[in-house]
Structures are given as structure tokens and as C-alpha cells.
Design a protein that fits this description.
Largest sheet: 3 strands, antiparallel
Shape: elongated
Strand content: 25-35%
Order of helices and strands: HHEEEEEH
Structural class: alpha+beta
Radius of gyration: 19 Å
Length: about 90
Amino acid sequence: MIRSELIQRISDENPHLYQRDVERIVNTIFEQVTEAMARGDRVELRGFGAFSVKRRDSRIGRNPRTGESVEVEEKHVPFFKTGKLLRDRLNES
């Protein structure tokens, strides 16, 4: 599901809301999650999962084309851990 499909589905299920308002709400939620992660905070959505930022140390990598060693700088990457309810729902028989 992409953002526009999410907005459309929420709009369809809530006919009393204007689509532009639903779009503003969805965008605000995503912006707040992004800003929190940029600050290094953890964002938890109960039953769904938790978003956090992990730090990867600098290292010596290898250019696959030339085989040459290259310095890879430290970086921060997003990480998602599923919540128990989501994991259970995905594994229902």
C-alpha cells in the first residue's frame, strides 16, 4: 500500500472527513515520525511496531567492480521491529 492508497482508504471509511484533511493528517503523522527519528528518538506504535535509528560504525569496504578498498563512513540507518500483535496476525494459520 502506498501513501495515496492509505489516504483514499481512510477517506472512504470516514465520509465525514474531507480528503484534503485526511491527506494533511497522514502527512503530519509521517513528518512527526521522521522528525523524531532524525532527533534519534524511538517511535512506538502499540500493536504495530517500533521505529528506531541504529548507528553503523565506519569500516573498510570493497568496491565490487574494481576490488579496491574504500573507507565507508559511519552512518545512521532506520530500523523497524514488529510488534507482537502484528507478528501474531501475520503468522495466523
